[in-house]
Amino acid sequence: MNNFFAPLLVFMLLLTASVASAQEYEWEFKKETNGIKVYTRDIADSNLKALKIIMEVDISVNAIMALLMNTTSYPEWVYKCSEAGPVEAVSALNTIDYYQIDFPWPFSDRDLYTETVTTIDPVTGVITSTSTGLADYGPERPGFVRVPTHFNQWIITPISPVKTHLKYFLQSTPGGSIPDWLVNLAADQGPVKSMQAFFKLARRAPYAESKEWLSERAMLPTEDQR
User: Fold this and answer.
1) Residue 163 CB neighbours (<10 A)
2) Are 198 and 77 spatial neighbours (Cβ–Cβ below 8 Å)?
3) Residues 152-193: tens digit of each pLDDT
C-alpha cells in the first residue's frame, strides 16, 4: 500500500469508529411530563440506561438549594427513599450522606453513601452539585445490598430571581441480583415522580422563603481561586 494512503486509511477508520460510538451513546428523548423532559442513553457493557432530565421551574435558586442540601428531607420527595441524612461535613459545600432505598419484594433493599461536591460559578451563578457513590464507606448493614456504583449531578442555572433552569444526570448500578428491566422501569418512573414531589415541596415553607443560601455561598472561593 502507498505510504501516503496507509496512515490516511487508519485515520478514516478511527474517525468512523468514533462517530459510530458517539451515535450509539447519544441521548434519546423518551417523554415529557408537565415540562419535565426525560432522556436516556446506553451505558457501555451494560443493559442499564443513563438518565438525563431537563426542566425549567418557577422556583428560586435559593429555595431549590435549601431543599437539595437538606438530605434529611429526601424521604419526602426521592422515589422509594426510606431514610437519608448527613454523615460527615468536609466543608459547607462538600458532604458525605447516607441513603436507604426500598426495593420490591423479594429483592433486598439498597443503601449507599455518597460524597457531594457543590461549586458555584461566581460570574454566572450556575451551581453544579455532583454526588459520587462511596461503596466502601461505612460498614455493610444486615438486610441491605450496598450500591456498588453511583453518579448523579445537578446543574442549576438561575434565569431570574424566581425562575430556574435545571439539568439532572443519573447513572447508577443497584448491585446484587435484580433484573435489568426492573431497574430501567424504576429509572423511567422514579425520577419524574421525584422531581414532581421536589418542586411541590420547594414551593412550601421554609424552603420557599429561603433568601440566604446562595448569597451566603456565592462568594466562597473555588479551588482554583484559593
Assistant:
1) 14
2) yes
3) 999 999 999 999 999 999 998 888 777 766 766 666 678 889
- State residue 66 phi and psi, 5-degree precision: -60, -40
Residue 219 located in a structural domain: no
Can the peptide bond before residue 106 be classed as cis, meaning omega within 30 degrees of 0?
A: yes
For residue 80, give the C-alpha cell: 422509594
How many helices (H) and strands (E) the chain has is answered by: 4, 10
Number of domains in the chain: 1
| CA dihedral angle for residue 20, residue 22, residue 24, residue 26, rounded to 10 degrees | -150
Domain hosting 64: range is 27-181+190-213
Report the distance separating Cα 148 and Cα 130, nearest Å: 17
Q: Would you tell me how many other CB atoms lie within 10 Å of the CB of residue 161?
A: 10
Which residues, 6 or more positions from 37, have their beta carbon under 8 angstroms from its beta carbon?
29, 31, 53, 54, 55
Give which of 97, 102, 103, 100 is closest to 83, Cα–Cα.
100
In a domain, 221, yes or no: no
Residues 6-41: tens digit of each pLDDT: 444 333 334 333 333 334 569 999 889 999 999 999
Distance (Å) of CA 148 to CA 52, 107, 145, 176, 204: 20, 16, 9, 9, 35
Q: Are 119 and 93 in contact, with CB atoms under 8 Å apart? A: yes
